Records
---
Amino acid sequence: MADFKLFIDGEYVDSASGETFTTTDPATEQPIGEVAKADREDAKRAIQAARTAFDDGPWKDMSGEERAGYLDKMAELLTANAERFAEAEARDSGGTIKKATFADVPGAAGALQWFARMARERPDRVELEGSPFPPSENYVRYEPYGVCTGIVPFNFPLLMACWKMGPALAAGNTSVLKPASYTSVTALMLGELAQEAGLPNGVLNVIAGPGGTAGEELASNEMVDKVAFTGSTEVGRRIMQLASGTIKPVTLELGGKSANIVLDDADLDIAAAAVLFGTFFHNGQVCESGTRALVHKSIYDEFLGLLVDRAGKIVIGSQMDFNSDLGPMVSRAQADTVRRYVELGREEVGEPICGGSEPEGLADDLVTENFYRPTIFAGVDNEARIAQEEIFGPVLCVIPFESDDEAVAIANRSIYGLGGGVQSGSVERAQGIADRLQTGTVWINDYHMISPERPFGGYKQSGIGRELGTAGYDIYRQAKHVHTNPSTGRDGYMHYAALSGNI
Ligand code: NAD
């Protein structure tokens, strides 16, 4: 019997097979509950519900104002239930309760509110002035695609679900979401908000299950009109292939290996905070983490001292304790990946200058193997595998440089281009560098500042398209041009004079 059921067509249901999987607290490895395990059949059921809700339901024909009302209501209900959602998110994902309380839940509610505003403010019909073919009158109508699927990763389950569902619904589409198996609970809980807000049945559907079956169905099914995916570049490639069968547009938010550049004129206090927060927040399980710190040679030794000193003070413990800065990794598998990369780093670079092991002295109920200390490798060559491959763990590579040009060249030498930072006392110099970085976001004297009003996405193999901002709303709408000739005749068609009857 599932404790957390699939949300399909307005109802919580078991999977067709009746199968479930156990979700656990990664800090203690104690079970949280049984989750209904969707396979292809359940995915098809959810897609069919979304299809019918789009084709026959009232959703797409409502005004933007009406749709916005539902999204605002869901945001309000999420905020009213913030504590319950934050606790569920922290326990299921291993992210700290502090992060869930101050980032995930308000961020998710904020995204819903932003897209509600988009539905109100962005016109769905724009009259075009003048005509190249007088006396025609022309307008562009913005229409929803239809059924939009959203496949999301384990690191920010609730937030990513709302980044997908918010714009899809605001623009008049219907949606099927699939969270990652390790972290399905809060996305499934969105169904409660939909029910309470009175969202029409089938407009939002949420299923949990393996990527290889349920996920592949969401990316390939011919009833699906658009796919949005956040996750690894490897799976993103597969999503593109699956979507290509019926030429579905894809939005892809993929991996990263972002560079955080510390110039010789930086305030080292602020820069150290930006580098440490930029790398170790949520154990480095953040796509745009600044996991390559490029540090000017003239401040290199002093800066390393600051990093090591402060990294050692980061508090590791139960994610449910408000005093913890870091909890466990999302899973034993992810912790094992970190251990493997740290061993590789030892071979490629030598001993890390801090970290490099599990923390000692954790409370008895915590599983030490699932935790890892913030780890810093210094003097790293940018060509090393630990500097090029996404580790998705608390591992920082520090790379020295001597000139701004060299820093830009190193930063851009990556298959990824998602985020990045420039730490400098000169805004002009920092912006000059920011303009030359091949990446979707640059923070100057800051890091990880993401908000729904600003576009977010990647260059190169970090993705296609943008989420958030106005771009993140418009990407869920098709533009239709309607040309009207209000008169009954036309003087002539330039290539076919005979057709106008003038010959
Ligand atoms: P993942 O790619 O393993 O899985 C992501 C989602 O895809 C999960 O729901 C999974 O079940 C599903 N999936 C897996 N195989 C599939 C398939 N063949 N077909 C359809 N769906 C499939 O990623 P993860 O381990 O959950 O998350 C970590 C990755 O996500 C990192 O690479 C990180 O950089 C990336 N990420 C990117 C962003 C961004 O905005 N660019 C944000 C967060 C995370």
---
Amino acid sequence: MAVSYDKERKIFHLRGKDTSYAMKLVKDGYLAHLYWGRGLRQVSQGRDLVWKDRGFAPNPYIEDRTFSLDTLPQEYPQTGNGDFRACAYGIREENGSRISNLLYEDHEILEGKPELPGLPASFGSPEQVTTLKIHMADSILGLHVFLLYSVFEEENVITRSVRFENRSGRPLTLTKMLSMSLDLREDEFDVLTLYGAHNNERNMDRRPLTSGSVRVESIRGTSSPQQAPFMALLRKGATEDTGEVFAANFVYSGNFLAEAQVDPFRNVRFQMGMNPWNGEWLLEPGESFQTPEVVMVYSADGLNGMSQTFHRFYQNHLVPQAFAGKRRPILINSWEGSFFDLKEEKLLELADRAAEAGIELFVLDDGWFGHRDGDDSSLGDWVEDRRKLPGGLERLSQEIHKRGLEFGLWVEPEMISEDSELYRAHPDYALHVEGRPYTYGRGQLVLDLTRKEVRDYVVESISQVLSRIQVEYVKWDMNRHLTEAGSGSLPWNRQGEVFHRYVLGLYDIAARLTGRFPDILFESCSSGGGRFDPGMLYYMPQTWCSDNTDAVCRMRIQYATSLTYPPVTMGAHVSGIPNQQTGRVTPLATRGYVAMSADFGYELDLCKCGAEELSQIREQVAFYKEIRDTVQFGRFYRVNSPFEGNVCQWNFVSQDGREAVAFHFEILSQPAAPVRLLKLKGLDPDGVYRDQESGILYGGDELMYCGISVPLKKQDFRGECFRFMRIK
Ligand code: GLA
């Protein structure tokens, strides 16, 4: 049983294949956290709660000074009645009171997992997932709260979300509504988060948890490149392959908060959810509010164990299933080669070169619509610019298809330029606050997606383009964060809802467009990997990892992105040299191997490449086609971290275990260089594998535990690939 309830002891036990999570009802129905970790056959009194009168810890019951919410390890802590740690939710009554107290009412165990209306969420069949719904209530407020725990037994994943219902006769305002909170009764952890910026997404930041809080967040309106909606607590000493990891990732694309707070008694409160900053929600009588969900992963096998779980889970239970197992095409993208300078003739020349190289998809990036010769105009006017495309998108798409390539198109649906027909007709379509000047980002404004007519415009105008031409791929971009986040369509007391309503609006248009064009492969993007989150992956199975295409930077970006997301969700392209973002000159082979470690493509002007380069590109394309299934659908293992030294290594193992592809990157050439070993992971120790290049036979154990020596070479930014086939 994935979920059981021991009536006598009032203990809930959520059981994954190798993990357990336990809670207990105490006193009048407070929900206490007992345990999260390795699988247990049963939870009886093993880690029962210890009662003690602690100084300055307030007591709800006058007769019992040992009971305090300030010291109780809680599951969904309230505020105003003695727990002075971070609360999980906040509420404001009409009279201004912010006090609330939740007690258990009842619970249900459901086979399967209910959908979360209007929100992206993981899914599974009734055989795969069981949901525990714990009903809590504040009877004074008339507030009912449903804590949803879905257990994916086989996957060792628990997801959590919360639904609030106002059953009072008065309005209530939610001022905080996190999706996950739990109190681990230990504090020997490091915290791992991922920070960054445009062109520098997802750097690993591991630091010890001491006193106080570690908190990461976004208040930018999107999940952001600045902080990823991810936090993991690593048991001290946990490594890539060993030790315990407790991780949470938020299935949401807007403002979020993740926090680990150490209390004076060395418990850690671990929380994640929507950011309460400027994020209120008015609940009229009878209304309800559903939070997005958090995916929780426990690993006893270090970060690698955590990533294997996330990868499998997202592929099987989050991304659009029609694409989960579908080969991703090798593409050529027009952006870095041409920017806004698009001409039909030139594009077709590029398509010719791409077809000769064996590339499969031609993507027309920004610049094809309105009169967009720079980034300061035309967003919202989704009609092709005939100066650039005299035969329209129709002819371009036809010509591209004649050359044997699929056709893809860039759009930025959530935006509006002041210099656009759309803005001239509907200036009110931009998010704004009456009487306040705009703040611009990349010279553009954000559409007010809280409004239905705006969403309808986006869906209709983009649908018109997608239905009149043959198109197999869409790149959905989003190039600025939200300011003046106000909406003329909402009353004053709902302006605090704009950030969340924007995200709900985004999900609405994403669902409608991807639903209307189910055969189109959508790749999301936000100035690179600025909105790489599970919320977007629910609608679009891949995300452009970063505008930084420099191979050396990409090693780190892709390495850290793989902590939660499988390589098949990452777009990666070979671009020209010197690199546009860093000025670095790296070998084509290295650029190729880094990009081949994900969904492969090119983003350079092939027409300017010499014969030798073109022939190398042809070989790369052919090689990727050979290893594609292993890269896209196999298991991915990080071997050596580019965050820790001069070497980066990783390897893939095909689903059936027959092929292993390993990559070795050495950043700077060094005098007196050490001989580097490459120790693969994920092989069968008893298997026999042939090195495809040398023909040498190795045992799986030998490849994993002893490793192979990488030949020395005097070369900066070096990349090597080793491919092994299992013969026994
Ligand atoms: C963003 C994207 C790029 C490119 C440009 C076009 O920066 O991340 O890949 O599409 O927009 O303007």
---
Amino acid sequence: MSNNKVQIFDTTLRDGEQVPGCKLNTKQKLIIAEQLDLLGVDIIEAGFPVSSPGDFTSVNEIAKVVKNATVCGLTRAVENDIKVAAEALKHAVRPRIHTGIGTSDSHIKYKFNSTQEKVIERGVAAVKYAKSFVEDVEFYAEDAGRTDNEFLARVCEAMIKAGATVLNIPDTTGYCLPEEYGAKIKYLKENVKGIDNVVISCHCHNDLGLATANSIAGAINGARQIECTINGIGERAGNTSLEEVVMIMKQHPYLSLNTDINTKLLYESSQMVSHHMGMVVQPNKAIVGANAFAHSSGIHQDGVIKNRETYEIIDPAEVGVTESAIVLTARSGRAALAYRAKKVGYELTKLQLDDVYKEFLNFADHKKEVLDDDIHLIMKNSNIAAAAVV
Ligand code: KIV
Ligand code: ZN
């Protein structure tokens, strides 16, 4: 594997599915898992097998059908969780157990009423037990974002010794700033014995809208796996959005970070997840939102019609969107009107355009968006229908 490759660990079916109202049945999970495999993700976190019989079945069925990606199951640092996950994953070509425990002072005190030493002991025992079933064991230090770096380094070193292959450093509460999260990864890279033999993973939540920025900061500082979800769905404000981190790495080649994602499948994957989860994608969502390639102000429309790159940093075709949209509103200019009129069959001279534009503005002031049918009406009202080129 290239040193600059960042593995994409998709947790749409686990952290993503934790969103209230987004629960999927096994059939839906299988459809999405097959799409993720096609998309080129490296790891699919298929579920939390001990959490319910339905989740066990889903992980088990996904493990049977996924051909390329590693299939992963989540556990707590609890023997039975690990045993059940191993059973659910037994048909996987490449199985991974993802186990872990909270490491921040708040988790140690309030969740476990325990001590740092005991938490390390529990983590080590969990990793060793998971290793007795599968070679590939990922350890998560829950709430690593708020865990003291020196203690976190001790935790990481102990888990490497116990056999962990991947160390997940979650910003569980979405608290870190990008600089702080990047520095945390750098600190671990520089202070943990054996760190170069394992993969460091970023798992960032979006409580302050920083999940994507934090994950990229982690990768810049040496992490080589990013945990993310389609459309950024996930617990509370969500997880890092897969389409965002992938396109950031692609659009900034000087970072020398790359992935194996087939970006042309991003839009259809987003639509598929939205459809099955019944969760609409916000229109202004980066990369996959309905307005991500739509231009509505006159100044922008004029630029895009002359050359797409004036206002677009991504070719929509790169992410599977057929074309940029020129949306007609009362803020649109003549260039946009002429462009859309031509698309529906009207070639206008400059004088005709001036006339039609007046009619268009009157119309647009009373409607949020002017559609193709409205253009025909505007032409009729402008009394220049005879100029139409059909
Ligand atoms: O946010 C988190 O810390 C998690 C872990 C279970 C990996 O989802
Ligand atoms: Zn999470």
---
Amino acid sequence: MPIRYIDESKDLKGKKVCIRVDFNIPQDDKGNITEDTRIVGAVPTIKYALDQGAKVILASHLGRPKGEKKSKYTMAPATRRLSELLGKKVKQAPDCFGPEVDAMIASMKPGEAIMLENVRFYPGEEKNDAEFARKLANGCEVYVNDAFAVSHRAHASVEAITKHIPVIAAGFLMRNEMTFFDKAMRNPVRPLVAILGGAKVSGKLEVLETLLNRVDKVVIGGGMAFTFLKAMGYSVGKSLVEDELILTAKKIMDKAKKRGVMFYLPVDCIVANAFEATATNFITTVQEIPEGWMALDIGPASATLFAETLRDAKTVIWNGPMGVFEMDAFARGTFAVAEAVGSAFATTIIGGGDTDSAVRKAGVDTKVSYISTGGGAFLELLEGKILPGVKALEIKTRK
Ligand code: AMP
């Protein structure tokens, strides 16, 4: 069913517009924001609403305060950063609702914005509680969801709230996410190549199953590759393996063959004698991983092979690092793949926090077509699921 976007919505002038954003940004020990991509991503929607003369009431979660008011998780630093980005003061509310918040809202003029406190200060948020959602809605006339990264959660500020506000719409960040996803998965220009990495097969099983029905090639790196390599009969030493999934891994490879999906695994790797940044390490083929050693990155031949798979690609989706890229000694494979994705003559879509930071560290973030702001939400879309936060925006009987 269709979704209405904020610029297709009714006149916003003078209206109280609640915008759910995802300002769940990383901070250092002193509360300094270390990465503001999510705030930057929501600016176009907020700016649009302000320019239309809306009274903008922003809601977000931050961290895991577990239903309690903990000052460590205040939205204040994000609100300050947003004010800088907008060039306009956004006031920080002391709570999500209550007399003080009501007074702040009552004194708002068109074109002004306030930020509510962390919605996860209340247990009702994660319980999708109707009463909490009603209080949060607080008489707003329009609700806009621009928080893609949390839209796979049926939480009150994402789902239940849509039942308490008459006009509902999605923001521009949400539109970008859905548009690029559609481009990649529903209407891909082929060949469509999916690169999957990260720690475990178990976390990406459903994604793999769905992808096999849609893609032309699958490239597997990271820790998850070693369950497949073991399933092929190789000894993989102390590399990460999920023994209980070996049969499943075999089935996946069979399915790929039956469907004519090219299935690529690493041909070489960097093995280490310990899971440590300073561990002794060397390059070897996947056939010759020594007993007691663990593979922590793909090797240079695999990086070349994987880059080769992208040569004719027209659409590329990448989720998950090729190795333990947090340690310099095991980051080269991920960066090489980032380079290859950045240089591909294709629509390239990156999803997941690790992959996002790898692409930025490799300096190719401006060369890819789209970096999704969602980790879990992106994976759930790849699994073919309908996100509860998106479903709640579908126009049913609403005008
Ligand atoms: P995921 O959240 O499943 O995408 O996994 C990301 C994590 O996988 C990163 O923290 C990597 O360090 C880790 N990872 C990637 N390759 C390996 C590997 N070969 N062995 C162990 N961990 C890995």
